[in-house]
């Protein structure tokens, strides 16, 4: 619900209910969600039985029992008291009187103490000769009497704060009433905690069916989300080849599922083919800065991940093997709190791929080695790619600005390594300092076979 304040201990699942640590706001969210599903049950249940007839595990009897019309098991909790810091008004008055008499009595004591304080106002108005005087609350200090600084007040009025124009007092009788109110509020807080614990114990007797039903509804929600993706234009059902010795993938017109809708027709799709002969297992991508290498790699990663999840993928056609892992080393980030530099984070992520990948894994490395010197970075990139191509023999996509490394690997392992570059159009530019001409480059964001000789960093910077 918009505007709802959440307790920091609000659970993301019903399991804390069994442990007795769930707070009022967390339970209220569960109750509200179940109530919404219950209202939709007359239309939902027939669709569930029809659409998921062949997926009995996705909609067990617990889900139907939960949302069956008239079940009403989980909607006892009032949802109009969520702004209370203590949770004392989470139960409606009728529920409190019927099930929690101690809480109802404590509430009445608080109301009586507040009414007693209000009853003191007429006398204070007569003393100050201010007919419209009301209590003020300043910095959580309640029931203050604010009067002009020139006004004389009885000696038993305690001065609590002041400004240039006003002074704020608390008369002796108000102070006594505040003490009574504080005792009543404390009693109400104790009663509210005990009522909530008692309520949780009662609901906890239904914990097992509630947990099973929530899991079932979560599975249905995931299936409906996958169905919505499958109905989206531009998505296709991936073909998953039968298990073979090595993994493979073939994507035509692959796009990024998040970025492409934002850019519309301006997003350039790309093709990928790895693993299936005559394709190689390792693809090295070069090209200008901002030429689209990282975006193309991310598009491939998203398609692979969505296929693994059983989803349609954003491509014209797709064929992807079942993978045992997907390792990525993307972007540049550090971890200051743990004392890890950008370069160390690169090495940690690359090390995870080197130690964990198998021949059925997909590894995507984006500019590995850029966190150090060119010489050291090229050496690290060469060693990493050699190991993946020779030892691990996994599917690998590597984006880099080291053309010499690419040429060496292609020469040494032509049967394992393929190359692509991000296409561009180069035009004559203006002369810069020293008479050198900086070319103008138009980026096309399309992968084509070959190796890019230059990165055009100065052109991009200009």
Automatic annotation (TrEMBL):
Its main location: nucleus. Residues 361-377 form the DNA mismatch repair proteins mutS family domain. This is DNA mismatch repair proteins mutS family domain-containing protein. Keywords: ATP-binding, DNA damage, DNA repair, DNA-binding, Nucleotide-binding, Nucleus. PROSITE patterns: DNA_MISMATCH_REPAIR_2. One of its GO terms (cellular component) is nucleus. It comes from Prasinoderma singulare. GO terms for molecular function: ATP binding; ATP-dependent DNA damage sensor activity; mismatched DNA binding. One of its GO terms (biological process) is mitotic recombination. The keyword Transcription regulation does not apply. InterPro entries: DNA_mismatch_repair_MutS_C, DNA_mismatch_repair_MutS_clamp, DNA_mismatch_repair_MutS_core, DNA_mismatch_repair_MutS_sf, MutS, P-loop_NTPase. It is found in: Nucleus.
